[in-house]
Amino acid sequence: MTLQGPQRTALEKAISPDRLHTYRSEAASRGCDHLDLYVWDRDTAAAAMADIAILEVAMRNAMNDALARLAGRPDWYSVELGLDDRSLKAVAKAWVEVPPARRTPGRVVAQLMFGFWRNLLEVGGHYGAGPRRQQARYETLWVREISKAFPGGRAEARTTGGQFTRAWTLGVVKEVHALRNRAAHHEPLVKGFPMPGENRRLALQQGLDACLKLSRLLDRDLAGWLSANSQLAQALTRAP
């Protein structure tokens, strides 16, 4: 319902003219009110974050279990696994953010952000310094254990004509991560979202598809639940 009167004035005042320009332009092409579109965009961002909150925790736990198996202990971050400097810096930050009296493996791992887990699916950067500087080989981590965090990967890849590899899995996770960051940073979603470092933009439906695909990689029962309860899917049906 289109806002009227003082509430409309208040909302207009709360949003910068530059930010509203995006919505005015898109609303004109859709034939709807720009403030209705703005409110829907806000609700859609919240819906995306709600879905991704489930996926982020599920992926974190699955990959954490894989690393714990690889290290032979729950505090895998205390063992030399060949992580690159970027990953080691994230682990160090997570470690100091948990008070010593509460520093359990679960609490340390909970401090590691989505980007940390995504980065473990990359090729891997360097670690060490000087003559001891080495190239991290995340493909080795993938082959040894991390691939097992995605038990639905082979079946899902086959349905799309792909091959279940580290790079293929990274492609799925990158799309979910890009949507997450776009929504978390309050950037407009009305025209979809860009893929950082790539010359392409995804529609919100493609973002939803990526979320559902990631859920199928992780757990088919989780995928069934998300498919039936996705807040993002519901938000897309209410687009102005």
How is this structure best described in words?
Helix content is 63%, strand content 3%. With 240 residues, the protein is mainly α. The protein has one domain. Strands 1-2 form a two-stranded antiparallel sheet. Strand 3 (193-194) and strand 4 form a beta hairpin. The protein starts with a helix and ends with a helix.
Write the layout of secondary structure elements.
Layout: H1 5-14, H2 17-30, H3 34-71, H4 85-97, H5 105-110, H6 114-119, E1 126-127, E2 134-135, H7 138-144, H8 153-159, H9 166-184, E3 193-194, E4 201-202, H10 204-218, H11 220-229, H12 231-236
Antiparallel strand pairs: 1-2, 3-4
Please describe the structure with a list of short key phrases separated by commas or semicolons.
240 residues; mainly alpha; two-stranded antiparallel ribbon
- Residue windows where pLDDT falls under 50 for at least 5 positions: none
Provide the gyration radius in Å.
21 Å
Indicate the proportion of strand residues: under 5%
Q: Largest beta sheet: what is the strand line-up?
A: 1-2
- Which structural class best describes the helix and strand composition? mainly alpha
**Estimated helix fraction:** 55-70%
The number of E-state strands comes to: 4
Distance between the termini: 10 Å
Number of helices: 12
Query: How confident overall, as mean pLDDT?
Result: 94
Largest sheet: 2 strands, antiparallel
User: Can you tell me the number of structural domains?
Assistant: 1
User: Which of globular, elongated, flat, extended, rod-shaped describes the shape?
Assistant: globular
Provide the succession of SSEs. Answer: HHHHHHEEHHHEEHHH
